[in-house]
Specification:
By secondary structure, the protein is an all-alpha fold. The protein has one domain. The protein contains three helices and no strands. Helix 2 packs antiparallel against helix 3. The longest helix has 61 residues. A possible function for this protein is to guide the assembly of the membrane sector of the ATPase enzyme complex.
């Protein structure tokens, strides 16, 4: 090791490097704010849409089977009310899903 004083002192920072680092930091913050909020909003909307599709499918199947089973119990037509209720529930669920998908699609340029 050397006893030279200049070897032990830290190298002074260049003002241009500090200015460049500050500009880069500001640009990163602006980009994160701009793109972060949009991507999060899109992810939240996609998550809600997926949950709604799942709820429509499950609600259609369960609701149709309960109503069909109730009709079977009252009318004494054991498998037919349940089957008709299931198919009606599936039909209603798919109608709701198609309706939801139709409202979220962007308008076409054809006219």
């Amino acid at each position: 090791m050397s006893d030279d004083k200049s070897a032990r002192e830290p190298i002074p920072e260049d003002a241009r490097i500090d200015a460049l680092e500050a500009r880069l930091k500001a640009a990163r913050e602006r980009e994160e704010k701009r793109s972060g909020s949009e991507s999060k909003r899109k992810a939240d909307a996609d998550y809600r849409s997926g949950n709604r599709v799942l709820a429509d499918l499950l609600g259609g199947l369960i609701g149709g089977s309960v109503i069909g089973f109730g009709v079977d119990t009252l009318a004494g037509t054991w498998p037919w009310g349940l089957l008709v209720g299931l198919f009606a529930g599936i039909g209603v669920a798919f109608r709701n899903i198609f309706r939801m998908a139709g409202t979220q699609s962007p308008p076409s340029d054809e006219g």
